[in-house]
Amino acid sequence: MTKTSSPNLTRLTYHRIYTDSQGDSHFDVVTVEQSLVRAAPPAAPFYVSEDGPASKYRFYTFEPGWIGELHPAPTRQFLALLSGEVEMETTDGTVRRFGPGDLVLLEDISGKGHVTRNTSDGYATFLVVPAPAP
User: According to the model, what pLDDT value does residue 7 have?
Assistant: First the structure.
């Protein structure tokens, strides 16, 4: 599960799938810095990262047993798993399992792509936010 890597919440991490120059996909872990700020007064301060570009969202829901065979991502996008459990496999053979609360950035929009499997007994639902290149 995607977790903050420090008890003081100044850093959080997420998973990333990217394509190398040979078209193969791989996992990486990205760390984001956060600062304690008064971002919504009069609410108490909370931890905030820098802004990233985004302008729309959608949901993906996969039926039990659904398998997305090897495919590139349709666009650069963040996937936040809301329910269910999935596993993703890159072409280097790495498999990672994700549950509710996990965040994955798909950047493998070219090349061979990745495989996604709904490994839960029920539906798996993602909140999807397309993310233009920074």
Answer: 57
